[in-house]
Design a protein that fits this description.
Layout: H1 15-24, H2 28-41, H3 46-58, H4 62-75, H5 80-92, H6 96-109, H7 114-126, H8 130-143, H9 148-160, H10 164-177, H11 182-194, H12 198-211, H13 216-228, H14 232-245, H15 250-259, H16 266-276, H17 282-298, H18 302-320, H19 325-338, H20 341-346, E1 357-362, H21 368-376, E2 381-383, H22 389-396, H23 414-429, E3 438-441, H24 450-456, E4 461-466, H25 469-477, H26 491-511, E5 515-520, H27 521-526, H28 528-539
Parallel strand pairs: 1-3, 1-4, 2-3, 4-5
């Protein structure tokens, strides 16, 4: 809770001026002595007690901090600053419930005390009480519409409630009212990056670093953005800027190693030491291990890469848990049982007849990014990246307590299907140049949502990307996916997930009332022009040779395949699993590569 605001009211000089000077120089010892000296001559000085409490709390001394802060409240019970600082002390020592009560007392004492409303809102948001937090933060802004930190907190809260546009406005106001607030610009940049506005995000990250060159989150955000833009040298440099300021930053270390082309030297040694240290936390161990695995793989050091990958995946599995196979099977059974040919026939009037959406689906690392990059090189087509909107719309129809998300479509009526289709099209078209005939959504796991997509867009097309199962599984296993992808850390789980995915896709091939094209990664590598022509014919656009030069595109790519698709098609990823067969016994659990037949 270190972001809780200090009180804006001026302290009584001369103690106030001396404390400001000491704290500006990070000299808590001198600040402590100043408060103690004041209390020796004026033991009932409430200001000295409340500041003494904050200093003790900052130094980790819980009981002296609370004792001093409570004494300040006894001495000045009608001063909102004393209750506010008691709340801050409670927050600093981890007692959020008590902190929230104190801040509620603050605004009871003085309802026009904006700091109290801000701190109450922040404490409530930390406790997960969103509606109450919203009300408190809005009260703070009604009293003082220029509070940049309050806009920042409110924006973060709105993000958690999926109110993205309102959140962006809050971040913009925070940056406007306090141009020196680097966090506001980097938070705004992060949200713009998530929405595909990568160039604007890059500019804002650079602005935040201009305001504060030691703003670590700004350097980290800039590094990720430069990766999305294909600027590897700039990204490496930005990650190094993080590491120079925080040498133990696990995400920066792993990301840097995942990019480093030359000898990583001291950083490789630091990574190895962190993996060998029993005190390294699981999430840090995972981030570093995945990066080190990529570093060794790029250098054809397959035994070392496998070893690092085993550590990374074990750590991620420990932190996030294993795949829930029972739940996955129930989900696929539910989808198959719900979305039948009869189900679609009864709803053939649902949605819009718009044929602009193209859903690119398949397992992650199966060639979905490559397919979208090829598609995006055509002047009549556009790739919108990975959108979360289809799944988000489906979830709106889901009873969170039912545990049966596949039943969302049963609650969809004809009018609402059109409403949802319009919502999705708005997200799909955001940032799309004019005149594009089709726009792709490359969210691989949308294969779970294809039935819902068919109810929204009867004219949509589906491109199903496939790849040799062992190569696909190895590529997933070596990637630092988010913690929700629990199937990704274990080859037995990957085999199970692959079988359920295959069962669902077989069902869609039988009943889905949408046009579908299989794109096989190995076929694309073997004969690029033939497969690209198949794709263009399927999408109803004329041949354009620029699609074979997809790697020259300067568009941002925000997936783990960002570096592969910036190179011409290469065959080194085919049968890659054979390099690891002797080091990773679990690969044997994946169905043989020769079980994948040609897509032609």
């Amino acid at each position: 809770m270190s972001t809780l605001l200090g009180n804006r009211a001026a302290l009584a000089p001369p103690l106030a001026e001396s404390l400001r000077t000491a704290l500006a120089e990070h000299d808590t010892h001198s600040a402590l002595r100043l408060c103690e000296a004041r209390l020796e001559t004026a033991p009932d000085d409430a200001d000295a007690h409340r500041h003494l409490g904050l200093i003790h709390a900052a130094n980790g001394k819980r009981w002296p901090a609370l004792q001093a802060a409570k004494r300040a409240c006894e001495l000045a019970p009608r001063d909102p600053r004393t209750w506010s600082d008691l709340g801050r002390v409670y927050a600093m020592v981890g007692q959020l419930e008590e902190a929230a009560k104190c801040f509620a007392d603050v605004v009871a004492v003085d309802a026009r005390y904006a700091d109290g409303w801000h701190n109450l809102g922040l404490a409530l948001s930390k406790l997960g009480r969103r509606e109450q937090a919203f009300a408190a933060l809005k009260n703070a802004l009604l009293l003082d519409p220029t509070r940049a930190d309050t806009y920042l907190v409110l924006g973060n809260l709105l993000i958690g409630s999926d109110q993205f546009e309102d959140a962006l406005e809050c971040f913009e106001r925070a940056a406007k009212h306090n141009p020196a607030l680097a966090r506001a610009r980097s938070r705004l940049a992060g949200e713009l990056s998530l929405r595909g506005k990568v160039r604007r995000a890059e500019s804002l990250f650079r602005q935040s670093l201009g305001l504060d060159p030691d703003h670590v989150e700004g350097w980290l955000g800039l590094a990720r953005t430069l990766e999305d833009l294909g600027e590897s040298e700039g990204a490496e440099s930005a990650y190094l800027n993080v590491l120079r300021r925080r040498p133990g930053h696990a995400l920066a270390l792993g990301s840097y190693l995942g990019l480093a082309r030359g000898d990583a030297g001291e950083w490789q040694a630091k990574a190895q030491a962190a993996l060998s240290d029993d005190t390294t936390r699981d999430e840090a161990r995972a981030a570093i291990g995945y990066g080190l695995a990529k570093y060794h793989d790029r250098r054809s050091e397959f035994a070392e890469a496998a070893s690092a990958g085993l550590i990374a995946n074990a750590a991620r599995r420990s932190a996030s848990g294993r795949l829930d196979r029972v739940a996955l099977t129930a989900r696929v059974d539910g989808i198959i049982g719900t979305y039948t040919a009869k189900f679609f026939s009864a709803r053939r009037r649902f949605g819009l007849g718009n044929d602009q959406p193209v859903f690119i689906v398949g397992l992650p690392r199966s060639g979905t990014t490559l397919t979208e990059q090829i598609l995006s090189a055509h002047p009549m087509l556009h790739g919108a990246g990975e959108l979360a909107d289809l799944a988000r719309l489906a979830m709106r129809l889901t009873d969170a307590n039912s545990g049966e998300p596949w039943r969302a479509a049963e609650r969809l009526d004809e009018n609402r299907s059109r409403e949802y289709a319009h919502h999705y099209l708005q997200a799909l078209r955001d940032g799309t140049p004019k005149g594009r005939l089709r726009i792709s959504d490359k969210s691989p796991l949308n294969f779970f949502q294809l039935g819902f997509a068919a109810l929204l867009f009867s004219g949509a097309r589906v491109v199903h990307c496939r790849r040799s199962p062992r190569d696909n599984a190895l590529s997933i296993w070596m990637e630092n996916f988010n913690v929700e992808q629990r199937y990704a850390t274990d080859f037995d789980d990957l085999a199970f997930f692959h079988a359920e995915y295959s069962r669902l896709m077989a069902h869609w091939n039988q009943v889905l009332p949408l046009r579908m094209l299989d794109m096989c990664y190995e076929d694309t590598v073997a004969d690029p022009e033939r497969q690209v022509r198949r794709l263009m014919d399927f999408l109803g656009v004329p041949w354009d040779a620029r699609c074979l030069e997809f790697h020259r595109s300067e568009r941002a790519v925000q997936t783990p395949s960002r570096w592969q698709v910036r190179q011409p098609i290469y065959a080194s990823s085919v049968d890659r699993w054979r390099h690891y067969a002797q080091f990773l016994d679990g690969l044997k659990n994946i169905c043989p590569a020769d079980e994948v037949s040609s897509c032609v």
